[in-house]
Specification:
The structure holds 2 protein chains of 2 kinds. Chain A is of the alpha/beta class. Chain A has a single domain, classed as Rossmann fold (3-Layer(aba) Sandwich). In chain A, 36% of the residues lie in helices and 17% in strands. In chain A, α1 crosses α6, α3 crosses α4 and α4 packs across α5. Chain A has an 8-stranded mixed sheet with strand order 2-1-3-4-6-5-8-7, sandwiched between helices. The longest helix of chain A has 15 residues. Chain B is α/β, with parallel strands linked by helices. Chain B folds into 2 domains: 178 residues, Rossmann fold, CATH 3.40.50.970; 109 residues, Rossmann fold (3-Layer(aba) Sandwich), CATH 3.40.50.920. In chain B, the strands form 3 sheets. In chain B, strands 2, 3, 4, 5, 6, 7, 8 and 14 form an 8-stranded mixed sheet that branches. In chain B, α3 runs parallel beside α4. The radius of gyration of chain B is 21 Å and the shape is globular. Classes of the chains: A alpha/beta, B alpha/beta. At the A-B interface, β2, α2 and α4 of A face α3, α4 and β10 of B. β2 of chain A pairs parallel with β10 of chain B, so a sheet runs across the interface. The complex binds thiamine diphosphate and iron/sulfur cluster. The site of iron/sulfur cluster has 12 residues of chain A, from α7.
Chain lengths: 264, 375
């Protein structure tokens, strides 16, 4: 990866040893490099959280916004200058709790931005509380007896809201992740990549997932490629999370909308 | 009527003034009594090569205009009390990243949903202190349709010049008034200062103006923004000295330029013994009340705040002249009067005149008040 994509003077980063955010950021920078994008035309926008600190370490234009508000800021940037490649880095809480409304509306509008969710299944920055993506029964500091709620399925949420590109990957599957990030960035329209990362400090520790290395390597056991999953029974897929491309369709245009009206 | 004279509604004057000042991006969410601005912008933005977007709420509206501003556009959003409350989060962020944005707040009767179609002046303190933390805001208040047009231009100019959010504080009545106005440009259009040198560029380094240049996103400066305390490089820090320097600079960049920013209008204040101090729609009633009192031989005068914030005690003291009695009519339970009590202490008699039923204070009511209170 090109070292001039990072602001080395800003390192070391704030992340705990073994945090998955660095690996996810590296994959994103790799995707940008492989696509040969003009670095002057790439803008990284984030909300608030451990994950949202990532853009400030990069050498692109970067905007660290408010908790949950990266997507509307990114929408303003993209509409003001459509020539820019606008990528949002956000956490599971940032994107699906406080920013959930903005997420579904950006997907509905099919704004041509890419949202990369660094999904560690909890609120890392504030000390490991539950997020809307925390699995049922999981232990967090605000679900000490196990999470009573059901989580969102972020992929289905984005797809249902009208996203025209949706994928999920994990940082253990580096090439898979980089490939899907590249497809998301080049996709014309709203794209989202649910990127599974580990938070060993909180989620991992509270739920006995082992150390950072064990959490990372275990992704190969509980993340299942979509192509493989298609051949499995629901019983075989219990407790597994499927990765791959889930939506890849053409943009919703005003023309498409008017056709729908005629049909109605 | 000159060629440039047209009949306009207050909200339309704000929209057209903003366009004349160069606004090319509008994001908003409908709310009475500001909705006409969104409707006008939906039609007008495409005509002038700009962008209109209706967002999902006011939080998204204000943050979208911040993003567009960072990408180089002059921007506007418009709202009223309930929406303005939601915008406070974004307003604080705009202060911290020094984003030039203009928010029109057309005051209706509140708190909460209140009386959507009734006028008030209840948001005055919210413009100044609605968002958390020490911060500085420019607030301008129009009393007429003509002034709505001029102040919309001025708001955009000041936002760009000082890299600061500007609130245009209008109200339900001024928003919906229809008056003939002159659309000739009253003052030059001001554009933000752009940086010249890419090498060694520091996003928040300033010269004597204390206002950093703006590297619009995508122009190759690789700029950086955060709502966290940041030094000249724009990178986050928890260094108390840097924090103190930043907060003081954000104040000083405005307070070093009060001559440029503050506009107070006085009428007969030189020899007045009774002076009305007011802003916005209430000031129109004052004009008539002062005329009537003068015609009866009473030395009455008026001071009208066109700029409400920054608020400069010394300027207000000077502009007030010799009047021993200061009447403060406002459509709330007493907000402007708090500032004036601070300014004058016990040196003058400060008399609040408040109305909180959703109606205006008529000139006749002001005269009755003066008589009955033996002012
Ligand atoms: C309006 C607001 N509410 C709460 C917070 C506190 N806060 C900071 S980060 C965060 C959660 C971050 O979790 P997530 O988005 O999952 O990112 P992570 O830290 O796990 O990467 C919260 C609640 C805040 N900064 N702003
Ligand atoms: S708390 Fe969790 S998410 Fe945050 S830096 Fe540490 S490991 Fe990473």
């Amino acid at each position: 990866m090109r070292s001039d994509f990072l602001r080395l003077e800003r390192l070391p980063d704030i992340w705990c040893p073994g945090c998955g955010n660095g690996v996810a950021l590296r994959a994103l920078l790799e995707a940008i490099e492989q696509l040969g994008l003009d670095p002057d035309k790439v803008v990284l926008v984030s909300g608030i959280g451990c994950s949202s600190r990532a853009p400030a370490y990069t050498a692109f234009d970067n905007v660290h916004t408010l908790h949950g508000r990266a997507i509307p800021v990114a929408t303003g940037i993209k509409l003001a200058n459509p020539k820019l490649t606008v990528i949002v880095i956000t956490g599971d809480g940032d994107s699906s709790a406080i920013g959930g409304n903005h997420l579904i509306h950006a997907a509905r509008r099919d704004v041509d931005i890419t949202v990369v969710v660094f999904n560690n299944y909890n609120y890392g920055m504030t000390g490991g509380q539950a997020s809307p993506l925390t699995p049922s029964s999981s232990i967090t500091t605000t679900t000490p007896s196990g999470n009573l709620d059901r989580p969102f399925d972020l992929v289905n949420l984005a797809a249902g809201a009208g996203a025209t590109y949706v994928a999920r990957s994990g940082i253990y599957f580096t090439k898979h992740l980089v490939d899907h990030l590249k497809k998301a960035i080049t996709h014309e329209g709203f794209s989202l990549v649910d990127t599974i990362v580990q938070c060993p400090t909180y989620y991992g520790r509270f739920n006995k997932r082992g150390d950072a290395a064990q959490m990372l390597v275990s992704q190969k056991d509980w993340l299942v490629l979509k192509s493989v999953a298609e051949k499995k029974t629901p019983e075989q897929l219990a407790g597994k999370v499927i990765i791959g491309e889930f939506v890849n369709i053409g943009r919703h245009g005003p023309a498409a909308a008017s056709t729908m009206k005629e049909q109605a | 009527m000159s060629e440039a004279t047209v009949l306009m509604q207050g909200n339309e004057a704000v929209a057209e003034g903003a366009i004349a000042a160069g606004v090319r991006f509008y994001a908003g969410y409908p709310i009475t009594p500001s909705s006409e601005i969104a409707e006008i912008m939906a039609r007008r933005m495409p005509q002038v090569g700009g962008t209109f977007i209706q967002m999902e709420d006011e939080i998204a509206s204000v943050t979208a205009i911040i993003g567009a501003s960072m990408a180089g556009k002059k921007v506007l959003t418009a709202t009223s009390g309930p929406g303005f409350s939601l915008m406070q989060e974004g307003l604080g962020y705009a202060c911290m990243v020094e984003a030039p944005i203009v928010i029109l707040d057309s005051m209706r009767y509140g708190p909460s949903t209140g009386m959507p179609t009734k006028v008030s002046q209840m948001d005055l303190m919210q413009t100044r202190w609605g968002t958390h933390g020490d911060h500085w805001i420019i607030v301008l208040s129009p009393s007429s349709v003509q002034e709505s047009y001029h102040l919309a231009i001025r708001a955009v100019n000041l936002a760009e010049k000082y890299r600061n959010p500007v609130i245009l504080l209008s109200d339900e009545t001024v928003s919906h008034l229809r008056e003939p106005i002159d659309t000739a440009l009253p003052e030059p259009i001001i554009d933000r200062r752009l940086p010249a040198q890419k090498t060694g560029y520091q996003p928040f380094k300033t010269d004597a103006t204390l206002v950093p240049t703006i590297a619009n996103l995508g122009t190759g400066f690789r700029t950086t923004y955060t709502g966290l305390v940041h030094g000249e490089s724009g990178f986050q820090t928890a260094n108390g000295h840097v924090a103190e320097t930043l907060v003081q600079r954000m104040r000083d960049k405005l307070f070093n330029n009060l001559d440029d920013i503050i506009r107070l209008e006085t009428d007969h204040s030189d020899d007045a013994d009774i002076l009305f101090m007011s802003f916005g729609i209430t000031a129109r009633g004052v004009t008539e009340a002062v005329e009537t009192l003068r015609s009866r031989g009473r030395k009455a005068g008026s001071l009208r705040f066109i700029t409400l914030f920054p608020f400069d005690d010394d300027r207000v003291r000077q502009a007030a002249g010799p009047a021993k009695t200061i009447v403060v009519p406002e459509l709330n339970s007493g907000q402007l009067v708090l500032l004036l009590k601070r300014v004058f202490g016990d040196t003058r008699r400060i008399v609040p005149l408040n109305k909180v039923n959703g109606d205006l204070i008529s000139p006749a009511e002001m005269l009755t008040f003066v008589r009955e209170e033996n002012l």
